[in-house]
Amino acid sequence: MDSVQVKNPAELRSVDPVWAKIREAALSAAAAEPVLAGTLHATILSQPRFESALSYHLARLTGTTEVPAALIRQTFDEALAADTAIGMAARADIVAVADRDPACTSHLDPLLWFKGYHALQTYRVGHWLWEQGRQTLAHFLQSRASALFGLDIHPGARIGQGIFIDHGTGVVIGETAVVEDGVSMLHGVTLGGTGKERGDRHPKVRRGVLLGAGAKVLGNIEIGACAKIAAGSVVLEPVPAGCTAAGVPARIIGCVDVPEPALEMDQRI
Ligand SMILES: CC(C)(COP(=O)(O)OP(=O)(O)OC[C@H]1O[C@@H](n2cnc3c(N)ncnc32)[C@H](O)[C@@H]1OP(=O)(O)O)[C@@H](O)C(=O)NCCC(=O)NCCS
To answer: Is 192 close to ligand 1, i.e. is its CB under 6 Å away?
Structure first.
């Protein structure tokens, strides 16, 4: 998909529906808001495909005087070309936000404006670098994302696709954390170590988990598939699949009544 440039909107909708929706939203926005027409053209409408829009925008955001956007963009392009799964995950993340965030007005919003999305995609390229043994450049991207977006995601962490990080401010994800597909989390979530362990020391968050704002999950513990963690909880013990944990320290307070709480953003106990 990423190597195909399609001009016809109907064809694009069938070949790359996420990119088609982004372009359609950008066209509408450029017509409605002339102030933004220039940036919408540069970032979206003049780009041949989703991957190039993503690399253009993230490089422009993360570039510095010493490491200009053009150089960073080469790295993003290199990663996106070498591993097409990054672009597919980035699309799935946009769909996750559009589906789950009531504040999201179009598929364009996450790509252009949502810092949780920006930090996650910067992490994805950083993780690719990390896996290539390019730790220094990976840490550079982690540092830039942390400074700019307020989320600190270690490039060694393993994060699936269809991830929604709402607001994002203060999210910390440690080096050996695992976040499986379809997880939703709000601001202030920490997937950290207890401070007492070395090595594999971070939580393993299984598919479809919902992590409430400010939840601190500490240690190499498993949060089972489709579990829910209440806002402000400190979780020190494993949480079984489908259960809800709340409190400081957290205890199990019930079981979910929807199969995928993260997809529904179902925050009922
Ligand atoms: C407090 C801490 C240092 C553990 O200290 P500890 O003395 O080894 O404590 P334990 O894990 O043996 O737990 C002792 C009790 O305190 C409770 N407890 C531990 N950490 C707690 C916390 N943060 N808040 C509330 N209660 C906590 C435990 O549930 C346990 O209760 P119990 O005796 O009723 O079962 C650790 O849990 C912690 O919070 N570390 C900070 C880690 C952090 O900030 N990580 C982020 C990295 S990005």
So the answer is: yes
Q: How many CB atoms lie within 10 A of CB 99?
A: 13
Q: How many residues does the chain have?
A: 269
Bin 247: left if φ > 0, else alpha if -120 < ψ < 50, else beta: left
Q: Atom 47 of ligand 1 has which residue's CA nearest to it?
A: 192
- Structural domain containing residue 76: 1-151
156 Cα to the center of ligand 1, angstroms: 25
Its pTM stands at 0.92
pLDDT tens-digit readout, 175-217: 999 999 999 999 999 999 999 999 999 999 999 999 999 999 9
Same domain (yes/no): 12, 92: yes
Cβ(188) – ligand 1 distance below 6 Å = no
Kindly report the average pLDDT of the chain as a whole number: 94
Q: Is there a single domain that holds both residue 231 and residue 110?
A: no
Query: What is the whole-number distance in angstroms between the Cα of residue 249 and the centre of ligand 1?
Result: 8
Q: Whose CA is nearest to atom 39 of ligand 1?
A: 194
Q: Is the pLDDT reported for residue 1 higher than 70?
A: no
Closest residue by Cα to atom 44, ligand 1, is 194
Confidence of residue 257 (pLDDT cuts 50, 70, 90): low
Last residue of a domain, one of 151, 173, 188: 151
- Which CATH number does the domain housing residue 59 bear? 1.10.3130.10
Residues 104 and 122 in one domain: yes
Nearest CA to ligand 1 atom 42: 194
Evaluate if residue 11 carries a pLDDT over 90: no
Same domain membership, residue 135 and residue 219: no
Q: How far is CA 267 from the centre of its chain?
A: 20
Mean pLDDT, residues 247-256 taken together: 93
Q: Given 3-state DSSP classes, what are the helix, strand and coil percentages for the chain, each rounded to the nearest 5? A: 45, 15, 40
Q: The domain that contains 239 carries what CATH number?
A: 2.160.10.10
Contact of 58 with 76, CB cutoff 8 Å: yes
User: What average pLDDT does this structure show over 224-229?
Assistant: 96
> Does the beta carbon of 234 lie inside 6 Å of ligand 1?
yes
